[in-house]
Amino acid sequence: MNSSRVEEIIRSLEYHHEQYIKNLRLLQEVHSNASVRATRLINNDVTASPLIKAVSFGQVSAQSTGSLGARRLTNDSPTTQPSPVSDAVEPAEEPPFLPLTPPIRSNSARTSETIVPSVQRPLLKETFSEEGLLIHLRSIGETNHDTITALGEVWQKRDELDISSVFTGFETGEGSPYANATYEILEIGMDSIPRHKQIQSDQGFLGGAGDGDGDNQDSSVWRVLKDINADGDAVGRITILQEPTPLMLAATHMSMQQHFDMDELFQHLVSTTGNKGKTKAYMDRAFETADLRQRSFFFVFKYYTVVGEGLTPAPWQAFDHRPPDRKSPDHIDITECSSILALSLGGDPTGTVKVKVKRKTRSGLIYDTFAPWHLLNIQCFPDDQHSTRSDDSKKHFFNGPYAFLDALCIEYRDAVKRYTYLNEMITKLITPPNQFMFDVRLRDKLLFEDSNFTYSRRYFWAYNTLGVINEGIKSMRSAYLSTFTKDFWAGRHPTLWPHPNPDSTEGRDYAARMDILRQDLESAVADLQLMYEKNETTRTEIRSLREQLFSGSSVKESRRAIEQGDNIKILTNVSMIFLPLTFVVGVFGITEFDISPEDWRFAVTLVSVCIPFFILILVLVSPQAPRYSTSTAPQRERKIKKESCDCPADAICTANPRGDANGAQIWIACRRLSPPTLLWHSHDGRRRGWRRSQAVPPLLPHDTPATAPAATVTTC
């Protein structure tokens, strides 16, 4: 087991431990509030009862008073909370001694159940048929381009389909692009407990009774999608489609069209129109014109992931479609991924809200936070790293917003998981192997670019890819932070799921439940920030490697250019030999077509022109010429300095002058060796030459008048 897996398990254990502590504290608070409310009911009933003065009441009063004192101390000082075990045992021990306890306890039990209210109105029953699905497919017009893109071949073959071939005319088994399509559909009852409509195993889909074609995924999904609230006791419904087939999307488009603007959702799912290819929240919808948009809220997630082995992205997802043999061995298959998380609240509006925009008043509708609801989650991630809801049977979904935030937390944690894996892949791609410390060939390969520009291409792709990923992380954090404010978590947001009475006991308990989700979401957002910083650190490493590569390649190219210059110099020298010969032959060829051997003029002219020319070329190309010119430069410099400095001939002048604070006066020191003396010469910039100064210049912190600076000196 590698270290990354161990760290992941440790983080998971810490996370579940924190959740256990939070739930335990919440349970204690609920028990404490319930006991206090029950005590108040006891006191009120006893005061109004004529049996208060009964003799047996004194024992009961004494016993109940002790219990009341302990419970009030629990509320007053949270540091001394009683054990939850004592609260659980107390109801079993009190009834034999308190005749009035059973009815009072039943009232308190009902009160504790309704402290956190839940949805009590059922969903509308809906049933769809195959004929209706075909009619719906044919009714989708050509103007809905994004919907057509999402449905793909299902819409293209809509006229060829019939009832017998609608679920058998498309390949969804092994080897098809949709072999890993999965789904989860849950219905939530009035007790807030979710129930799976169809359970999925690791091997595939488990069909229901009479499901003879359980291998057909489209048929399995359709059997669950076509009936909504068939039992009549569901108040909410969660529909999750992961890597859905086009027919799954078509069935969802039909079954959810009464609750969502499905064309709008598909537009954000398959295109960048409106969201600019980044995660965005569409939650402030009270002032939309259409009723479907006013009652629905959704998040669109747009980021990137690594394609899983054997998986293929959807046709509308950005991806490098080159065949594997045309890709480099270290190529990372990265693709764009999309997800839609939407919530729709049923029923009629419960209120209105008005706002002034440019001297005009706009009215919006507010829907009941505890209305019947539908939650739709469409995930298109071709990496087979989805989070399943196998443990959701232990959760309680009190209303639609609570289920939406719980699913939103899962989406954010999945994004962190995908970003982490992508960062590991890119870091592995650009990190040099440790073997370079011992292999000189590998060092040269890393330091100097090859003919295919392998490392330049790699660093460019990795650096800019991490930059794009960080932009997506910023948009994801911004979508959460700008949407869910303090007023929202307190239940006082004017338009986004306000609580009917946030100051009541039920409102505070509901806020406490929501606070658990808030902490989970903020933890996921904090992990995103850590991932952003990790990506920036990786980008810094890539920048350093790229600069080293450019430096080494530049030196290599400079040496190659020098070698080419030497070769050109040799060719030029060779051409110089034929230049005078060509000149002489050309001159004689103007007047003479045939030169006789006895014509001495040609030989004399050839020798007279070629020999001086060759001597001149030898002088110019001789290495002694530049050496001679450079050797005369110091002598000329000493001569100029001798003329400008009036110090003795046996003195040594420093090359670095010293100036005062404002730069108006400059000194130069001359030191005589015999006898040892130090002479200062000043120059004010207005006259030529140096003059011996009687004043001592300001010394540097590391120097004294008795020591000359350790610099190159010239004799003047």
Structure description:
The protein is of the alpha+beta class and 716 residues long. It folds into four domains: 101 residues; 427 residues, no CATH class; 69 residues; 83 residues, no CATH class. Helices cover 48% and strands 14% of the residues. It contains 18 helices and 17 strands. A seven-stranded mixed β-sheet has the order 3-2-5-11-8-7-6, with helices on both faces. Strands 12, 13, 14, 15, 16 and 17 form a six-stranded antiparallel β-sheet that branches. A hairpin with a 6-residue loop joins strand 13 and strand 14. Helix 12 packs parallel to helix 16 and helix 14 runs antiparallel to helix 16. The protein is elongated, with a radius of gyration of 43 Å. The chain starts with a helix and ends with a strand. The C terminus is likely disordered. Pfam families: CorA (PF01544). It is found in: Membrane. Keywords: Membrane, Transmembrane, Transmembrane helix.
Determine Rg (CA atoms, Å): 43 Å
Oligomer: single chain
- Which structural class best describes the helix and strand composition? alpha+beta
Strand fraction equals: 5-15%
Total strand count, please? 17
Low-pLDDT stretches are: 36-114, 199-214, 636-644, 685-696, 705-716
Q: What's the domain count?
A: 4
